[in-house]
Design a protein that fits this description.
Rossmann fold; single chain; six-stranded parallel beta sheet; seven-stranded parallel beta sheet; 44% helix; binds 2-acetamido-2-deoxy-beta-D-glucopyranose; alpha/beta
Amino acid sequence: MSLIPLCLAPFLFWFRFPPNSLRKDWFKELLRFCLSIGASRPLIRVQMALSLRPYQEEVVQVALRGENSIIWLPTGGGKTRAAVYVTDKHLESTDNAKVVVLVNKVHLVDQHFAKEFKPFLGNKYRVTAISGDSSEKDFFGRIVKDTDVVICTAQILENALNNMDEDKHVELTDFTLVVIDECHHTHKENVYNKIMARYLKKKLRKEGKLPQILGLTASPGTGGKKTQEKAEEHVLQICANLDSVIVSTKNYKSVLQEVVPRPQKKYDIVEKRTRDPFGDHLKSMMGMIHVFMPSAVNQSLRKMGTQEYEADVVELEKAGVRRGSRLIAQCALHLRQYNDALLINDTIRMVDAFRVLQEFYSKKTLLDETDVFLQDLFMENCQKLKLLASDACYENPKLAQLQSTLLKEFREVKESRGILFSKTRRGTSCLLDWVRSNPELQNYISAGILTGAGAGANCMTQNEQKETINQFRKGSLNLLISTSVAEEGLDIPECNLVVRYGLLTNEIAQQQASGRARAANSIYSVVAEEGGREICREHTNEYLEELTARAIAKVQLLSPREFGEKVLELQEEAVRIRMEAERKMEEKRKRYRPAQVQIHCRGCFSRVCSGEDIRTIENSQHVNINDSFKHLYNTGGQVHLERTFEDWEPGRDWGMEIKFKKVAILPCLNSIGFTFQAPNKNCEPKMYWKDVEFQVKEFNFTEYMSTLLGGLGLDD
Ligand SMILES: *[C@@H]1O[C@H](CO)[C@@H](O)[C@H](O)[C@H]1NC(C)=O
Ligand SMILES: *[C@@H]1O[C@H](CO)[C@@H](O)[C@H](O)[C@H]1NC(C)=O
Ligand SMILES: *[C@@H]1O[C@H](CO)[C@@H](O)[C@H](O)[C@H]1NC(C)=O
Ligand SMILES: *[C@@H]1O[C@H](CO)[C@@H](O)[C@H](O)[C@H]1NC(C)=O
């Protein structure tokens, strides 16, 4: 259920998360918990023999000696199997051994459990999977005591490390081996890195016996760095964060290449549209909004129809809110919507772009003259846009190319299986619509959507995901249309065609996508515009992939002493910075009393509650416990969990209601819908929970229930 501020109710219907992976993971689990209580888990009783390929043997050697290491193998190379092997040997040879396997996506918990750890280790050892929807999560501490191998998301472990309740609490030192899947995420504020930060702190203080670390990755990436030197620094940083050396195959590269063949790469380049009346008209409308705003505001905006422009209007909206100008804030929100339409025009059909705008404006409430201006502007141009959008002779030429790329492969290869990666969830549904309304494609292709697990419009539940993948395996579907985030780690059958369409991603995502094309003679195609940004990025990524390999080789060449010194230096630095940040945070939290900070709606600017009404749950969710708050919003609509920048809706939802312990229903506030005003009116309002200058109290269930019952007169 999402919370909809009453002032904007009719037009806001999505819910968005702030860009904070921590919060997202936690919430996903909570939601999934609500959605899929009682989901069954396959029981596999047959013990399978565990044997490794030569290159896997090679890369596990360091780990088998009990030393920390990162295993670097490409997608499809069998990293998880290698980890199962290490776990097996570790359990055999270590007294009081206890292993935790950490993953970064909820679906990987079950996948690793059912496909890898349970079948190979289940007969000899107690293996437990703890996902968001299992009640075991509430007894994490106790479960850990009675089991040999625990598989869970990093967030669940992090919560348990923080939780002082005896049933839930664990210490890092309770484990003897920590396996970290997709360990290149162990960086900055990622939850993997928070867990490893505890490890490093203990290591530097020489506290307790620390577990062995085993990281797994298909690519540590270059962290956005473009020079060899910086890439090496990044790889070293990852090594330092994981306190590990990085291991890859040296002697069996050819075997690896046989097992994981690289697809043939193809660029399907399209010429630019010569005329684009629909896009031009959108731009002229945006120009009118520019003129409506105070002059000089528009000077700071970059080129329309680009992600730079999007970033600029996002900043502009914030600036508007800070300065208390609803005019600027609202215009910026609407400009973002127009820009979105331009971005859609650039990849999908014009009608899709038009529809997005039409939906946006159909739900709008008019609060002041800014709203009236914006609404009128759209209404006056609506018919004209519609007409231009339906003119086939200016249609997006990329689609024609996409059609021929798909047809070529699906006609030639019987039993073809393909994945089409697109940028956003909305993109996937527009593309599905396009495939289904295209008679020629219908002869060969039966397409379905695969997006990340979650709840809400265009989102899938884990079961739906499984069902779609199953149909794909059986062949009743032969083309999956997917967002680039959905695919990481999903167990999808081999494909002979992978198409990347209108995508700008980093080198890691690119490698992971190409890793999906694993069948013999498979094709990896990039459909993009001549001289466009996608092509440019694709080439950059190829270069970065090479750069990563070179950087790793260089790091591996360091003498153990030199490596050790560098890593130690980075670790000391990281611990120092983290402690300093914690100190600053504590100071900031003491600046005001909660009741002094007023919370305003970001859409209509009116006050809705104070800091006194807010509590946190497990340090990550912010709920409002004041009963009168419920009168300020409606519930309804769907819940979105994806957090890609491009896919953000310029609505201003407040958050969603969460059910706590199956009894209390509490509105959980997303900071994107609010601003936080300090008592000193000269201070600019804060916009994120992480920046608020008061101590948010921890939610106390007992207390909440007793006031609630007290309020109903049921106390005694
Ligand atoms: C910016 O606004 C001024 C009027 O305020 C207008 O003359 C100018 O064309 C605008 N620039 C752009 C790039 O829209
Ligand atoms: C709309 O999309 C087409 C095709 O990709 C592109 O050539 C054109 O520049 C786009 N229009 C705008 C205004 O971005
Ligand atoms: C609940 O919110 C209302 C309106 O903001 C406020 O007047 C009231 O004092 C709050 N109640 C409590 C118990 O804080
Ligand atoms: C929660 O509230 C109850 C009742 O007011 C109190 O006894 C208990 O100590 C509180 N728990 C925490 C962790 O503060």
